[in-house]
Amino acid sequence: MAKMKSGDVSSNRAADELRNIEVTLDFTPNADASVLYQQGDTMVLACATVAASLPRWFPRDANRGWVHAEYSLLPGSTDSRFQRERRVAKGRTQEIERLVARSLRGAIDLEALGPIAITVDCDILNADGGTRCASITAANIALRLCVRRLIASGRCLPADKRLTYDQIKAGVEAPTLSSKEAIEHENNVIPHDLAAISVGLVNGEVYTDLDYILDSNADVDMNVVMTADGKFVEVQGTGEEFTYTREELDALLEAATDGVKELNNMQANVLADIE
After folding, report:
1. Among the CATH numbers 3.90.1150.10, 3.10.50.30, 3.30.2290.10, 3.30.230.70, which is that of 21-271?
2. Fewest CB within 10 angstroms: 97, 107, 207, 245, which?
3. Burial class (CB in 10 A: 0-12, 13-18, 19+), 232
């Protein structure tokens, strides 16, 4: 179905300018790590929680971890009330959950993480375009902070320093990593940060970080997920009853790459010196 075009696309920001971003760490105290992430008027609460055990389908002697994600639009997040998905997530929600989860798993070394399962919940408090992209960017911050704390507590260690089952049962204390070792291990677990951005063609011009009005008026819109070393995790691009050239595709990808670089810098600054 074609999108209904509505609203004034004029904006007080440049076409290549990201919306204002605000990040509040540890917004909720019970999660192992939480992030309230605002990008323009889109607001996401991302909470990372460590599970008591690995998923049941993992082998008992597994030495690698797992990262899962869930996504939800809260009832008051849209202009008309969004009905709760109580029993099972619907198609769009499932699609976004899978995108967030596989994006996170594409950026983390599950072997280096060790036998730990982490779930990142992304709840949309307010939706104004780009909710899946904002969820991925926020989830990365929450995941890295969670991993950092697991390392500091001795629960996430390099393979050669992990305690055996018998040692844990006997009450042997986990070794403590030096600050240098902790940083090195964190960067082995998550070698490069992950972020996502929306871009689009609106009236023939490339726009970065689409809000709802820009997205509704885009002839082509695209979501791009990338790691900080410039590798792509996912590219989703669609012409809305419209075709686009290779040159326009390249321009969209270039805009997305520049936008993700800004987001990666933001992520690094937010977590600098945070324990």
Report:
1. 3.30.230.70
2. 245
3. middle
